[in-house]
Amino acid sequence: MSTITTQQMRFWSPEVRELEPYVPGEQPKIQNLLKLNTNENPYPPSPKVVEAVQAVLENSADVLRLYPDPDASALKQAIAAQQNVDASNVFVGNGSDEVLAHIFKAFFVQEQPLLYPDITYSFYPVYSQFFGVKTKILPLNDDFEIVVDDYKQANGGIIITNPNAPTSIALGLSAIEELLQSNPDSVVVIDEAYVDFGAESAVSLVEKYENLVVCQTTSKSRSLAGLRVGFAIAQPHLIAALEAVKNSFNSYPMDRFAIAAAVASFEDQAYFETQCKKVIDSREKLVADLEAIGFKVLPSKANFIFASLPNKDAGELAAELREHGIIVRYFNKPRINQYLRITIGTDEQNQRLVDTLKSDILA
C-alpha cells in the first residue's frame, strides 16, 4: 500500500486518523513453510462440515440469491444444545472479533473505566479506542497471572481472556466467580477463545450470574477460522443488548455456508473431542521437548505455548527460525519481549520445530 499523506488524510474522520488498528498474525505465502504463529488448528474440521457446505453448494441456484436467516436460528439451537443452555442465551456473529465489537459497544461505553490486564488480547485496546471506551489497565503479577483483588474497584466493565493470550495461563472458575460477585453492577466478559484445550468454561455460571457474558469462537478448536463464526452466551437481557447493536450495524452477519458448517461442527461432538485431545497431547509433548533443551514454558491450557530461552534474545530466535522456514509469533512489547508464542502443530510439525532448534540454531 502506498504511503498516505497528511493532505490526503484530510478526507478521513478525525477519529479514524488517530486509530491504531489491530495487527493480525502474518499470513505469508511461502513454500514448505511451517506456520506456528496464528493459533490455527493443525487438523481439518469435521467431515460433516464439508458435507454441509457441499449441500449448500448443490442447492446454490435456489438459496444463494436469498438472504440467510438473520437470526441464524439453526446455529443458535446447535450451540445451545452443545453448551447445555437455552437458545435465548446465545448470540452469534461473524467471528468472535465481531462479537467482541458488539460487546464493547453494548456494555462498556460507561462513565467508569473498563478494566483488563496489561498483557492480553491486543484487540481490546483497539476496540476501546474505536468506541471511545475509558480504560484502566491492570498489570499481571510477576508470574503473568491475573490478580483478582485488583479488579475489586469502581469500573464500567471487566474483560478477561481465559486462557489468557498470549500467556496461555488459565483462571479457575472460583476466581471468575469472585470477579462476578465483587462486581454485581458491571458486565464481566470472559473471552474463551482457547477454553476447549483444557481450561474450565464459565458457561456453567451463566444461569447464576446476570452480569456474565462468555464469548467463544469456532476458529480454534473447531478448525473453522476460514468461515468466521463466533458466539456469546449470557442471560437473555444481555443477549438482547447485543442483538440491538448487531441489528443497528448488520442484520445479516452470518452467511449460509458459515451457518451450515458451524451447525454440522456442533453436532459432531465426538470428532470435536478427539481433535481437542490430539492438540492437548501434542502440546504436552512439545512442552517437555522444549524444556529438555532449556526453554522456560508457561503453564498452558491453550492450543499454543508461551516460551522463552534464557540467554537467547527472543526476537533474534524468531528471526532465525524464520530463516529455516518456521514462523512463530514475537511480540516486541514490554514484559513479554523475551517470549515467543508458538502454536501447537501436529506431532510431525512440532518435531520439525524441535529438530531445527537442536540441530540448526542451538547446536
Summarize the structure in words.
- The structure is a single chain.
- By secondary structure, the protein is α/β, with parallel strands linked by helices.
- It folds into 2 domains: about 25-45 and about 270-360, Aspartate Aminotransferase, domain 1, CATH 3.90.1150; about 45-265, Aspartate Aminotransferase, domain 2 (3-Layer(aba) Sandwich), CATH 3.40.640.10.
- Helices cover about 35% and strands about 15% of the residues.
- The chain contains 12 helices and 12 strands.
- It has helices spanning about 15, 45-60, 60-65, 75-85, 95-105, 125-130, 175-180, 235-245, 255-265, 270-290, 315-325, 345-360, and strands at about 35, 90-95, 115, 135-140, 155-160, 190, 210-215, 230-235, 295, 305-310, 325-330, 340-345.
- The strands form 2 sheets. The protein has a 7-stranded mixed β-sheet, with helices on both faces. It has a 5-stranded mixed β-sheet with strand order 1-11-12-10-9, with helices on one face.
- Helix 6 (about 125-130) links the parallel strand 3 (about 115) and strand 4.
- The protein is globular and about 60 Å long.
- It starts with 13 loop residues before the first helix and ends with a helix.
- The model has no long low-confidence stretch (mean pLDDT about 95).
Helix-strand blueprint:
Elements: H1 14-17, E1 34-36, H2 47-58, H3 60-63, H4 73-83, E2 90-93, H5 96-107, E3 114-117, H6 123-131, E4 135-138, E5 157-161, H7 173-182, E6 188-191, E7 212-217, E8 230-234, H8 236-247, H9 256-267, H10 269-292, E9 296-297, E10 304-308, H11 314-323, E11 326-330, E12 340-343, H12 347-361
